[in-house]
């Protein structure tokens, strides 16, 4: 069943909004939506469990409201100013380093990832430093990083032989679970890899040039070029190149294809594994007490504002050893992807989930419908309490 038909079914199953009789205001205002509760069980990978609730619109306790109010007028402006300053500074560095240099436009891409000499060195070193500085400004003062040994990866390495040269041992890609846009900042500060991004990102002021210096592979779903390989082909070539050439930027891929609440691991797409090159699995966790940094069922602007209003944010990183695929895994990228996924779930204590982006859209649609119903009923109840009917007319008092 397609996404469109699923959304139609979902809409048809939504309970009709039945407003209480305006002359009788002694009924309970609202009851929990059982349909949403069922969806939360089914789509648990996208459910927010923090104080702010679904879509960041939950009812806050008084203490949280006070803390949020203080942060809105003190912490938020300072962090916005310092954060924008860091972005502008790095943009100027990238602009200077790319002066009189033409970007690489092979395979309908547009990037400066293959600059050499001092230009590339300055871009990478300043990028790593300023990315970590930006995380510090956002509230990630300490990042717990753990390098973990895994019997599975060590056994795989032995299967491939112990006489590999340093160049051959170099991984072609980093694969990570995807929880938030903050993942990108961490990986920039750690290894400064290339990412996959939408074509529109290249046109965003400031960020566009930075993404080109990262060597982003831009997603272009439609192309009139007859020899266009598609994103998978470009990514595979980049992974091959990074594996064979240590001066080439490594690819950073989120094989889940979308973000979760950080407790689950979705099915992996095979793009990172088509080249059959070794990969570095990295697991990101964001422990929290009040607001979860996970970007799951909340709008971007609301998420940024609430994140910047948290006095301290936490991040934990687990880096597993290089995973060397067996010959069978090289021949079957899907098996390769599934084995890496199971390893990451085991080492990171993550729950395997079989849902994907389509289910996430259905869950978001259901939340929006539920929010609309909630607003309509609450507005009606408020009007009843004030003694007005739905048309705004004053209700006559009983004699």
TrEMBL record:
Keywords: Acyltransferase, Lipid biosynthesis, Lipid metabolism, Membrane, Phospholipid biosynthesis, Phospholipid metabolism, Transferase, Transmembrane, Transmembrane helix
Keyword Transmembrane helix part of the UniProt annotation: yes
Protein localization: Membrane
Start and end residues of each Phospholipid/glycerol acyltransferase domain: 172-287
Keyword Nucleus: no
Family as reported in the entry's similarity comment: Belongs to the 1-acyl-sn-glycerol-3-phosphate acyltransferase family.
Protein name, as recorded: Phospholipid/glycerol acyltransferase domain-containing protein
């Amino acid at each position: 069943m397609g996404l469109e038909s699923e959304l139609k079914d979902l809409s048809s199953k939504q309970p009709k909004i039945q407003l209480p009789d305006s002359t009788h205001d002694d009924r309970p205002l609202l009851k929990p939506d059982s349909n949403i509760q069922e969806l939360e069980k089914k789509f648990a990978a996208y459910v927010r469990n923090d104080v702010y609730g679904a879509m960041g619109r939950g009812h806050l306790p008084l203490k949280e409201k006070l803390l949020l109010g203080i942060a809105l007028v003190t912490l938020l402006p300072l962090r916005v100013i310092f954060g924008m300053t860091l972005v502008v500074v790095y943009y100027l560095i990238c602009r200077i380093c790319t002066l009189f240099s033409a970007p690489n436009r092979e395979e309908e891409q547009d990037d400066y990832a293959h600059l050499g000499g001092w230009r590339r060195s300055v871009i990478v070193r300043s990028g790593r430093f300023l990315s970590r500085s930006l995380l510090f400004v956002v509230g990630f003062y300490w990042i717990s990083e753990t390098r973990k040994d895994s019997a599975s990866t060590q056994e795989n390495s032995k299967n491939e032989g112990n006489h590999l040269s340093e160049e051959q041992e170099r991984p072609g890609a980093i694969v990570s679970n995807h929880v938030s846009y903050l993942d990108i900042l961490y990986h920039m500060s750690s290894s400064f890899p290339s990412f996959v991004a939408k074509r529109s990102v290249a046109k965003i002021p400031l960020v566009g040039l930075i993404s080109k210096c990262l060597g982003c592979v831009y997603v272009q779903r439609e192309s009139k070029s007859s020899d266009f390989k598609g994103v998978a082909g470009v990514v595979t070539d980049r992974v091959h190149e990074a594996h064979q050439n240590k001066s080439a930027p490594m690819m950073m891929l989120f094989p889940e294809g979308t973000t979760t609440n950080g407790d689950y691991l979705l099915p992996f797409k095979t793009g990172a594994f088509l080249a059959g090159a070794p990969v570095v699995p990295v697991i990101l966790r964001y422990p929290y007490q009040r607001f979860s940094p996970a970007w799951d069922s909340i709008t971007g602007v609301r998420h940024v504002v609430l994140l910047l209003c948290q006095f301290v944010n936490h991040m934990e990183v687990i880096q597993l050893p290089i995973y060397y695929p067996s010959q069978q895994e090289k021949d079957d990228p899907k098996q390769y992807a599934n084995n890496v996924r199971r390893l990451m779930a085991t080492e990171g204590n993550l729950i395997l989930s079989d849902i994907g982006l389509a289910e996430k859209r259905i869950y978001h649609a259901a939340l929006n419908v539920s929010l609309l119903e909630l607003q309509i009923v609450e507005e009606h109840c408020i009007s009843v309490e004030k003694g007005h009917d739905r048309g705004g007319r004053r209700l006559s008092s009983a004699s």
